[in-house]
Automatic annotation (TrEMBL):
Keywords: cGMP biosynthesis, Coiled coil, Glycoprotein, GTP-binding, Lyase, Membrane, Nucleotide-binding, Receptor, Signal, Transmembrane, Transmembrane helix. This is Guanylate cyclase. The keyword GTP-binding applies. Pfam families: Guanylate_cyc (PF00211), HNOBA (PF07701), PK_Tyr_Ser-Thr (PF07714). Belongs to the adenylyl cyclase class-4/guanylyl cyclase family. It is found in: Membrane. Residues 179-210 form a coiled coil. GO terms for biological process: intracellular signal transduction; receptor guanylyl cyclase signaling pathway. Its main location: membrane. Its EC number is 4.6.1.2.
Length: 450
């Protein structure tokens, strides 16, 4: 539409100028500049060819397709007077080219020659012979304008001043200039693209946060941060940490009496309780394997001798929670666990790339595991190394178990941790078990919590 508007403006100006008439208006004389503005050319000078030198070839007859029927003659020669009404007819043929996106008389050129078409136009038939334009090819008001402009009676054709008014009405809502329209579309596209980029960036940020949160759940925060920054996590030796192991007593028999879904629900309830408890202490959960639960304190952030105190308080809190824990599908069953605690040196590092795990290695880990397996239900089995650190605090209550046989260690002296006189400054909030009853999971440590 912007090209049509440019053509109409140009012809209206030309008809009001001293030139008065174009005379050779056709699509080849309509040029498009660098800003996609239509410019009219080849007007004013009639011809550079003498009549005696003019050759009536196919090119000559093709140019006559834009000539009005009253001016059309097969014997016409250059220099034949032109009229403004003839220019209006030529404009209608150009309009047909724009609409059908082809040459003049595009719909009939496959079965009619140029001379046949020109003869039909010059014959002034009723109805007159004109290009075929379907109603689906263009808006009805544009088709109506086209038919008015190629009317067989020149006096019935509108002037370019009237055509300009009609085109302006048709173009309401359209940009007058194609470049302006392109710039508007580009601006709209840029705005849409900006919104799309902002939306995708927000989605990416959300996925990044989810990934980070997931990584922080499976790895210590400092280790996860190092991995997220693209750095390698080097294995590290820790001289003094405390390891916690626990295991469910009679788990195999319990599984035999339960269906798989009940077992999964039970472990999820239990370990969710454990996870809430350890959140109050400087403790990192290393892993859960089946019914085994492993924690450590003193790494990756060193905390002096507090690692033993943190694990001791946590173990007592977990034991309290287990004593009051109810299994959903076996409410009469008293859950029992064994707990083993040991202190010493370990080596820690990230193992794996697709599913990285923060793993602990060393004899301290093995000893803690064996203390758990040689312990007794609802008791906390403690090594001598851990007992020595406990004694520094003077608040933990330990009972001598005596010498026991540990695989790979021979006879070792071990102890039972039975309680703590220290008032924990971080009493956890009451937890809910799986049947949504408000309970105090720590009746021994925090009897005041109801």
């Amino acid at each position: 539409m912007s090209l049509i508007h440019d053509l109409v403006k140009g012809m209206a100006y030309l008809h009001n100028s001293d030139v008065s008439v174009h005379g050779k208006l056709r699509s080849s004389n309509c040029l498009i500049d660098g800003r996609f503005v239509l410019k009219i050319s080849n007007f004013g000078l009639r011809t550079l060819t003498m009549p005696s030198e003019f050759v009536k070839d196919q090119t000559y007859y093709h140019k006559l397709l834009w000539v009005a029927p009253e001016l059309l003659s097969i014997t016409v020669i250059p220099g034949t007077p032109s009229t403004q009404k003839g220019d209006v007819y030529s404009f209608a043929i150009i309009l047909e080219e724009i609409v059908v996106r082809g040459g003049p008389y595009e719909s009939v050129k496959s079965y009619m020659t140029l001379t046949q078409m020109l003869d039909r136009v010059a014959a002034h038939d009723n109805p007159p012979f004109r290009p075929l334009v379907g109603e689906r090819d263009c808006p009805s008001d544009l088709l109506e304008l086209m038919e008015k402009c190629w009317n067989d009676n020149p006096d019935e054709r509108p002037s370019f001043a009237n055509i300009r008014t009609t085109v302006s009405c048709i173009m309401k809502g359209f940009c007058e200039n194609l470049m302006d329209d392109l710039l508007r579309r580009m601006e709209q596209y840029a705005n849409n693209l900006e919104s799309l980029v902002e939306e995708k960036t927000e989605q990416l940020s959300m996925e990044k946060r989810r990934t980070e949160e997931l990584l922080y759940q499976v790895l210590p925060k400092s280790v996860a941060t190092t991995l997220l920054s693209g750095e390698m996590v080097q294995p590290e030796q820790f001289e003094s940490v405390t390891i916690y192991f626990s295991d469910i007593c009679g788990f195999t028999a319990l599984c035999a009496q339960s269906n798989p879904i009940e077992v999964v629900d039970f472990l999820n309830d239990l370990y969710s309780t454990f996870d809430r408890i350890i959140g109050f202490y400087d403790v990192y959960k290393v892993e859960t394997i089946g019914d085994a639960y492993m924690c450590v304190s003193g790494l990756p952030e060193r905390n002096g001798d507090d690692h033993a105190r943190e694990i001791g308080l946590m173990a007592l809190a977990i034991l309290d929670a287990v004593k009051s824990f109810t299994i959903k599908h076996k409410p009469e069953y008293q859950l029992k666990i064994r707990i083993g605690i040991n202190s010493g040196s370990v080596c820690a590092g990230v193992v794996g790339q697709k599913m990285p795990r923060y793993c602990l290695f060393g004899d301290t880990v093995n000893t803690a595991s064996r203390l758990e397996s040689t312990g007794e239900p609802l008791k906390i089995h403690v090594s001598r190394a851990t007992k020595i650190i406990f004694d520094k605090f003077g608040t933990f209550h330990l009972e001598l178990r005596g010498d026991i046989e540990l695989k790979g260690k021979g006879k070792v002296t071990t102890y039972w941790l039975s309680g703590c006189s220290e008032k924990d400054p971080r009493p956890p909030t009451p937890l809910k078990n799986h049947i949504d009853n408000e309970v105090n999971p720590f009746p021994i440590l925090f009897p005041s919590i109801k």
